Amino acid sequence: MDKKMIIELRARGQALQATVYVGKEGITEKVVDEISRQLDKHKLVKVKLLPAVEQDRKEAAQELADKSSSVLVEVRGRTVLLAKEQLSTRTGQHLNID
Predict the structure, then answer these.
(1) Is residue 80 part of a domain?
(2) Greatest distance between any 2 Cα atoms in the chain
(3) pLDDT tens, 47-85?
(4) Has residue 92 got a pLDDT over 50?
(5) Cβ–Cβ under 8 Å, residues 57 and 93
(6) How does DSSP assign 38-85, residue by residue?
(7) Are 22 and 60 in contact (CB under 8 A)?
């Protein structure tokens, strides 16, 4: 993903509210399924890591991205911004966000 695309996604992410919250149980299959479902629908999802999460926030963010087959756009504080990864075979570009 190029720098221009990251900047655009970060700008779009500012207007979003967190729609998925990760609590004391950590990253569960249920959380990953919900992130995947929202990514299919919205292409860009904001996740809030509550203070009860014991895992390092950057490691947790990367794990969420890996398990949900998404791209980690940004980690700011305890907020994670994930984008759906779509590989366009025609252009070779990632992340066609509408």
Answers:
(1) yes
(2) 44
(3) 999 999 999 999 999 999 999 999 999 999 999 999 998
(4) no
(5) no
(6) HHHHHSEEEEEE-TT--S-HHHHHHHHHHHTTEEEEEEETTEEEEEE-
(7) yes
> What is the reported pTM?
0.84
Which residue has tokens 């779509």?
86
Sheet hosting strand 44-49, strand order edge to edge? 20-22, 44-49, 79-84, 70-76
3 state DSSP class of 24? coil
Residue 91 lies in a domain: no
3 state DSSP class of 35: helix
Which pLDDT score, from 0 to 100, does residue 1 have? 74
Is the residue at 92 inside a domain? no
CATH number of the domain bearing residue 59: 3.30.110.60
For residue range 36-57, list pLDDT tens digits in order: 999 999 999 999 999 999 999 9
